């Protein structure tokens, strides 16, 4: 089954993630094709890749060595934008869990679409400028970071050097009758094909709509993000606001913490709820970054710092006794 091979918790989530990955790959190929085509204006435009920065690293070095500092600075800006987008993904999801849709993915999708909307708006305002390439690169870095974190680097949607390498390696293995990774091969070929097709379509879009074709890319990114929010709303039974701002995990947790639970004495209740809270939250590494919310939740069930301190003292005393024994 695909979901077992991908590590997804369900077959529906596996296919959902795969379709989203294919759409993102198409969109990256599309926006990359637009920016590389030189067709964003009738008189021609700057040709620049934005879905990856391999060329930017080389070109920045060449320009710097040749004393063309303005062009070198632009290439460095693209690198920083792409890395910056990935940094945003990391900041939004500091403790990524492979194959688990976390609350932070929804807001990150929306931020990525805002970057492409900014690129489209800037291209409308200054079609002969270059700032739009910066925002397009940032959006690609953001989406590549998200897809890589969720799939443990299986689905990389914007840059396909690694994808092509994996395709070649697996194909070589299959030629030697090792079909273990055939399912991965099909996924990777699908991603590469979607990216290629996006580049193909971008030529016709740029020829007819010029820089305005960037609005389609921004709209598609936003549409993919809204599809993700709809999926979260259906599977997690949360509101649009919760899905959009990534608060559904905390809201659900705090609600369950305040619900009556038949767990015995008040002290036992508090112990059980504290254990539940930390187990639920720490799996996403959110305890340190959300101490205020955690404190608020504990306060709602009457647990103050004095009680937590006494629990810690009991724990350390028990640990010391075990070590002494």
UniProtKB/TrEMBL annotation:
Top-level division of the source organism's lineage: Eukaryota
Residue ranges of the TM segments: 15-40, 72-92, 104-123, 185-207, 213-234
Entry keywords, A to Z: Membrane, Transmembrane, Transmembrane helix
Record-given protein name: DUF1275 domain-containing protein
Species per Swiss-Prot/TrEMBL record: Cyclostephanos tholiformis
């Amino acid at each position: 089954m695909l979901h077992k091979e991908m590590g997804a918790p369900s077959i529906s989530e596996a296919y959902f993630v795969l379709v989203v990955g294919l759409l993102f790959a198409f969109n990256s190929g599309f926006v990359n094709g637009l920016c590389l085509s030189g067709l964003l204006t009738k008189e021609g435009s700057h040709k620049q890749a934005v879905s990856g920065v391999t060329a930017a690293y080389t070109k920045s070095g060449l320009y710097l060595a040749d004393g063309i500092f303005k062009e070198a600075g632009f290439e460095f800006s693209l690198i920083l934008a792409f890395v910056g987008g990935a940094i945003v993904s990391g900041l939004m999801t500091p403790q990524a869990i492979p194959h688990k849709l976390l609350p932070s993915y929804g807001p990150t999708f929306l931020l990525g679409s805002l970057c492409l909307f900014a690129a489209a708006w800037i291209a409308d305002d200054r079609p002969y400028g270059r700032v739009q390439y910066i925002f397009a690169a940032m959006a690609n870095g953001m989406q590549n970071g998200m897809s890589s974190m969720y799939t443990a680097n299986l689905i990389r949607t914007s840059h396909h050097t690694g994808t092509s390498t994996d395709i070649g390696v697996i194909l070589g293995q299959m030629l030697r009758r090792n079909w273990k990774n055939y399912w991965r091969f099909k996924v990777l070929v699908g991603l590469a094909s979607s990216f290629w097709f996006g580049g193909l379509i971008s030529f016709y879009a740029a020829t007819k709509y010029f820089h305005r074709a960037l609005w389609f890319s921004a709209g598609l990114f936003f549409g993919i993000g809204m599809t993700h929010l709809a999926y979260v709303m259906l599977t997690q039974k949360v509101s649009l606001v919760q899905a959009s701002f990534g608060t559904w995990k905390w809201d659900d947790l705090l609600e369950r913490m305040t619900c009556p639970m038949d767990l015995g004495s008040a002290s036992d209740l508090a112990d059980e709820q504290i254990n539940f809270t930390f187990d639920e939250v720490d799996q996403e590494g959110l305890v340190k970054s959300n101490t205020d919310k955690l404190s608020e939740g504990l306060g709602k069930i009457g647990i103050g710092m004095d009680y937590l301190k006494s629990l810690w003292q009991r724990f350390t005393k028990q640990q010391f006794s075990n070590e002494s024994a």
